[in-house]
From TrEMBL:
Organism the protein comes from: Ogataea philodendri
Designated name of the protein: NAD(P)-binding protein
PANTHER family on file: SHORT CHAIN DEHYDROGENASE (PTHR45458:SF1), SHORT-CHAIN DEHYDROGENASE/REDUCTASE SDR (PTHR45458)
Family annotation (InterPro entries): NAD(P)-bd_dom_sf, SDR_enzymes, SDR_fam
GO molecular function: oxidoreductase activity, acting on the CH-OH group of donors, NAD or NADP as acceptor
């Protein structure tokens, strides 16, 4: 039996992951939600899915989550940090303090502050695999040509933090990897595309057609989880082919 933790499973990629992972009834899936998710709640009918509430932007919620997690399972084998916000549609000079704060608190500080609650349970496992969902938008070298500055900067901070974490835990047999899922047709993606297209329906349709479904993305993530090993600790890869993404 493998025990999985999916942080941010109420919709999109996280929900698809919880669904795919829980189809193996011998495994256990701990899935978190910030708000009540009807679709995620349906998965608990499988009996191997447990839902815990967690708002990664709230310190009290993080502390309460840690206590509930320890009371729910003795160990975690594989943790997937998926929760994120993607609302940035403005260039740097037009990005508000509120937008910077929201993206950084949720996308980078959130995972960094939640991880210590999970770490002791990972230490009780021999598998010790941890995956953080990132994006090429956070690559300083590649620099995507879209005005998603707050989102990209928050992911760049996440990339730095996770890379440091992988180095600090290198002697403890961890596999800590950043994953770029590619273009995925989530609610957040569709909303951002609609704004950036600026009414250009052809451009908007073209962008949507490039995207894979959350279900396809989940299957690619599962394959990546299986393939990536301790020797891959500290990498930043795209899930489709496990090729390196530039930091």
């Amino acid at each position: 039996m493998v025990t999985y933790l999916v942080i941010g499973a109420s919709q999109g990629i996280g929900l698809a992951l919880a669904d795919a992972l829980s189809k193996n009834r011998e495994d256990k899936v701990i899935a978190t939600q910030r708000k009540e998710s009807t679709e995620l709640r349906k998965l608990t009918e499988r009996k191997n899915v447990v839902i815990l509430n967690l708002d990664v932007a709230d310190q009290k919620s993080i502390a309460e989550f840690g206590e509930k997690l320890k009371a729910t399972v003795d160990s975690i084998d594989i943790a997937i940090f998926n929760s994120a916000v993607a609302k940035a549609t403005t260039p740097l000079l037009e990005t508000t303090a509120e937008s910077w704060t929201e993206h950084f608190v949720t996308n980078s500080l959130g995972p960094v502050l939640v991880y210590p609650q999970v770490h002791p349970l990972l230490l009780k496992s021999d598998i010790r695999k941890v995956f953080f969902m990132s994006s090429t938008a956070g690559s300083i070298q590649e620099q995507v040509p879209y005005p998603v500055d707050a989102y990209g900067a928050s992911k760049a901070h996440l990339n730095y933090s996770v890379r440091k974490l992988s180095q600090e835990l290198a002697g403890e047999h961890f596999t800590i990897v950043l994953l770029h899922p590619g273009t995925v047709s989530t609610n957040a993606f569709n909303a951002v595309v609609s704004i950036l297209a600026g009414g250009d329906t052809e451009l908007e349709e073209g962008a949507r057609n490039m995207a894979i479904t959350p279900e396809t993305c989940a299957q690619q993530i599962l394959a990546a989880i299986k393939a990536l090993e301790e020797k891959d600790n500290g990498r930043f890869v795209q899930i489709s082919d496990l090729e390196n993404v530039s930091f």
